[in-house]
């Protein structure tokens, strides 16, 4: 039977950090768990920047894992410092000094590696082996660069989550990140056997940017849509939402994530004399969000704003279950896990019409609004508050449609099929 190697480097680099439950790291964890339970010959690996090589690890799963799902099984003390191995453009001073910094980081990483018992890992040669990675392109670009210099060629099958930073070239504050992002994706695409994408929308974007020359020619691109499932865990629940029904936003920021639309919608409700439900903002605390919310114009609704910082998965589940609705007003998403998770738990979702991927997630179970029209979102919220029978009918329809929603097992099975493992 063919062997498939699954990359846990994303989790390894995030070990012990508060963001391990979110976004890409969450996807790596959930799919890894399902692959560990599958009948396929899947082996788990991490790239060690200390050694510039891959090691096979035995992940902890379920109750044995601190996450309640899956982790690489390595002590958090071994978490390495990450340093880039390549840059989009030359820089004389950086290129002169950077090798010294890289050497220093490797020495620190080797010292940290001493916390790893010898029987926990074994070095593995991935030359000509098939590797699936769901991590960030910059992590893949690092190990592809250093292994390429050593003549190691991997049959890489990466899942790309979005092409959003390519749109941000026009913004000077984001240009450095956009350049690095594009550079990393060039490396990943050139070295890939095939590409996986987290939605049909992302697949179309990859192929469009390749055709326009922003990305290199691409191999086959297979869409593997992410899922709706939110797995229950046994973590302690300390942070909870208000007792009365509330509007929930998860991971929302100003800008592309469009917190502005939600705040303007609540302000519109207040100004038109309609009830303003509590708003729960769940996710990482950001200075730019705090600064935005401090505006005096929001004083009339300030007592309706609730912040839940970095909820664990059990707390997040409780927040979904207690919400009147989830609002996701993003102008662009690669997939949109919060919308899927809300629907999975029977909570209505209010989603932007501008982010095409959200239509893939929500289908005919979500309700949609123009993200540039806060009054439209306000009307949807008000209808849920004022029309009890209509709200109950919506909840019933969502519950009846749960059977067509995707699970993490569906994602893992599709990856195995796409990579010719089944």
Automatic annotation (TrEMBL):
The keyword Transferase applies. Residues 242-389 form the Glycosyl transferase family domain. GO terms for molecular function: glycosyltransferase activity. SUPFAM superfamilies: UDP-Glycosyltransferase/glycogen phosphorylase. Keywords: Transferase. It comes from the Bacteria. Gene3D superfamilies: Glycogen Phosphorylase B (3.40.50.2000). PANTHER family: GLYCOSYLTRANSFERASE WBBK-RELATED. This is Glycosyltransferase. The lineage of its organism: Bacteria, Pseudomonadati, Pseudomonadota, Alphaproteobacteria, Rhodobacterales.
